[in-house]
User: Which sequence fits this backbone?
C-alpha cells in the first residue's frame, strides 16, 4: 500500500473516489432530506444552513439528491464494467488460446460491437424495451465487451509465449488449468487498470443517457437528470447545474486518476521509467 500511495495520481484519485463512494454508502441509511420529497414553498432556494446546496424547482434538497445520484452512478459503473469484463475476458481468452478461425470470428464481432457507441446502443435498446437504468447498464456493458476482449487477447498472447507457460504444459498441465492458474493471474493488472478507467467512463455515459431521458427515470435522482432539469433555471438558479456538474466532474476525475495511479504502479515499465 505504501508503494501505491507514493504515487500522487493514485493518492488524489483514492481520496476523491473514497469521498464519492462514502457519500453513496451513507445515503442508504441517511440523507438530510428525502431526495424525492417535494416542498413547493421552498423551491429554488440558494445554499443555506437548512439546505446546504439549496433546493430545486420542486423544493427537493439538492445535496440529498446528489447523494442518491452517486448511488445510481456507482451501480451503473459496477454493473456495466462487470458485464464488459466478464464477457470480454471470456472471449478474449478464447481468442488468445484458440487463434485461427475462432480468433478471427471473435475479433470481427468485437469490431462490430465497437462500432456502436454506448449512447447509440442505449437508444436502440430503449426503443425496444423502454428507457431505464437497467437498459442503460446493459448498453454500456455491451459497449465495453470489445474493449476488454481486445485487451485480454493481446495480453494473453504475450503470456502464452513465456518460458514458464511452456514448462507448465511440458509438465502435463492441461490448457484450461494453465489458463486459470498462469495466464489470467498474469494479465489481471492491465484488466484492473482498464476496469477502473472504464468505470469513470461509465459514470459519464450514465449521466449523458439520463440527460437524454434514457437512463435513470424520475423520481429517482441522477446527476445527468438533474442537469437536464436545471437547464431551464440557469439564469435564476445556476447552482442547480453547477453542483451535479461538479459531482460528475469529480467522479470522473477521481476514478481516472485512480486508474492512472494503478497503471503507473502495476506496470513495471512505468515503474522503471520513474
Assistant:
Amino acid at each position: 500500500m505504501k508503494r501505491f500511495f507514493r504515487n500522487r495520481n493514485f493518492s488524489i484519485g483514492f481520496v476523491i473516489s473514497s469521498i464519492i463512494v462514502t457519500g453513496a454508502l451513507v445515503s442508504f441509511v441517511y440523507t438530510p432530506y428525502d431526495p424525492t420529497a417535494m416542498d413547493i414553498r421552498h423551491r429554488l432556494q440558494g445554499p443555506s444552513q437548512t439546505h446546504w446546496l439549496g433546493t430545486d424547482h420542486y423544493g427537493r434538497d439538492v445535496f440529498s439528491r446528489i447523494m442518491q445520484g452517486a448511488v445510481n452512478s456507482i451501480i451503473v459503473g459496477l454493473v456495466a464494467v462487470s458485464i464488459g469484463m466478464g464477457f470480454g475476458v471470456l472471449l478474449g481468452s478464447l481468442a488468445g488460446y484458440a487463434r485461427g478461425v475462432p480468433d478471427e470470428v471473435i475479433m470481427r464481432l468485437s469490431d462490430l460491437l465497437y462500432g456502436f457507441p454506448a449512447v447509440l446502443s442505449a437508444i436502440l435498446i430503449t426503443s425496444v424495451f423502454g428507457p431505464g437504468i437497467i437498459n442503460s447498464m446493459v448498453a454500456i456493458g455491451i459497449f465495453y465487451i470489445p474493449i476488454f476482449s481486445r485487451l485480454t487477447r493481446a495480453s494473453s498472447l504475450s503470456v502464452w509465449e513465456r518460458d514458464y507457460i511452456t514448462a507448465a504444459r511440458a509438465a502435463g498441465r492441461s490448457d484450461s488449468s494453465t489458463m486459470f492458474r498462469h495466464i489470467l493471474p498474469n494479465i489481471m493488472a492491465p484488466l484492473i487498470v482498464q476496469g477502473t478507467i472504464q468505470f469513470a467512463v461509465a459514470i459519464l455515459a450514465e449521466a449523458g443517457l439520463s440527460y437524454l431521458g434514457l437512463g435513470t427515470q424520475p423520481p429517482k435522482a441522477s446527476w445527468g437528470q438533474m442537469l437536464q432539469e436545471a437547464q431551464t433555471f440557469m439564469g435564476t438558479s445556476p447552482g442547480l447545474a453547477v453542483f451535479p456538474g461538479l459531482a460528475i466532474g469529480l467522479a470522473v476525475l477521481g476514478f481516472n486518476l485512480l486508474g492512472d495511479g494503478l497503471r503507473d504502479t502495476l506496470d513495471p515499465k512505468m515503474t522503471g521509467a520513474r
Observations:
- The mean pLDDT is 86.
